[in-house]
Amino acid sequence: MTPQRLLAVFGAATLMVLPSLGAKAEDVCDKPVDMVILSIVHDVKRYEEYRASFIELGNLEEFGGRIVTVATRLEFEPEVLEGEWPDNRHSFVIRWPCAAAAHKFWNSEVYQTKQLPLRVGAGNYDIALFPAIPE
Fold first, then answer.
1. Which pLDDT value is given to residue 114?
2. Structural domain count, the chain
3. Domain range for residue 3?
4. Residue 93 forms beta bridges with which residues?
């Protein structure tokens, strides 16, 4: 057996015995992230159905997500310090234990087939993940 082949076999055996060494960086769940959602809603009825689905299906919590900031006139009257905050502007921040958890939620069958279709056409959305600032 060649040294390269021996090394390959040894490496594969090591990864089977020590699966944590074979984990991908994106699978490691040790750095919280915030999902920032900025939206301009055009169809309030459709958007409300989408929001209600989170309570009904409870899948946000299933993946470790929790809403940490809500900025919407549907629930609060903001104190605008500068500029404007139109009635149809909505903003949320969802804290996830890590990016992998956020991706699992985002790619989940429930979100993709039951929730996301409710949001499509309700408005314009910008959604991104950022490293969470420690509390």
1. 94
2. 2
3. 1-25
4. 36, 69
